[in-house]
Design goal:
The chain is an alpha/beta fold. 18% of the residues lie in helices and 20% in strands. It has one domain: TIM Barrel. A 7-stranded parallel sheet has the order 1-2-3-4-5-6-7. The longest helix has 14 residues.
Length: 195
């Protein structure tokens, strides 16, 4: 639902549903993950000694002269393995609007402005409310109908990437046509050729 809004992504390393090692992908809960969340050597990456240093680093990527409030999207892997109340408080001190993309297996600290939960099949999904529920679709043994009565403002289906992406887009469109409570969520950066 935030697609197109200027944002800085803060990708945290590590996940509790897959260790990120290709040798272990087949047995991972989230074996279709398309994100490199291992290490800290990505663009703008690093290890930060304090929440203040991380917030200042993220703020350095915000376009100069922009009057909009800085918007940071905390993602991963699973950001709630590291995102804590202290960091949330520092982000707010620096006037950030804070969004979270999580797999829903952990309860977030207070003060997050936008929560997007993306449950994965066979995970211990406990976060059952937020701003948007985004399902990667299709997933074996994960029926979108089982989520429809949860406390979310928006319900989104994102076609699973990979070798069957075109087929998954067709399945997603067909499901949303038949179930108008759901909207399509596309990974626009991939269609635009952005990193």
């Amino acid at each position: 639902m935030q697609s197109g809004r200027p944002a800085v992504f803060c990708r945290f390393s590590g996940c509790n549903l897959w260790n990120g090692q290709e040798a272990d992908r087949e047995n991972a809960i989230c074996n279709f993950c398309d994100t490199d969340f291992n290490g800290t050597d990505g663009g703008g990456g690093g290890v930060f000694e304090s929440a203040i240093l991380l917030a200042e680093h993220i703020l350095s990527f915000w376009p100069k002269g922009t009057h909009a409030r800085p918007f940071v999207i905390c993602t991963g892997g699973e950001p709630l393995l590291q995102l804590d109340q202290k960091l949330i408080d520092v982000f707010h001190k620096y006037n950030f609007t804070i969004a979270l993309e999580t797999n829903g297996t952990l309860i977030p600290p207070n003060g997050i402005d936008w929560i997007c939960v993306s449950p994965k099949m066979e995970s211990d999904f406990i976060l059952k409310s937020g701003d948007e529920l985004k399902l990667v679709f299709p997933q074996a043994s994960l029926d979108p109908a089982q989520f429809i009565n949860l406390d979310f403002k928006h319900f989104l289906l994102q076609p699973m990437d990979g070798p069957s992406r075109d087929e998954n887009i067709e399945k997603t469109v067909a499901y949303c046509h038949a179930h108008p409570h759901w909207q399509i969520s596309l990974q626009m950066h991939k269609f635009l050729g952005l990193p």
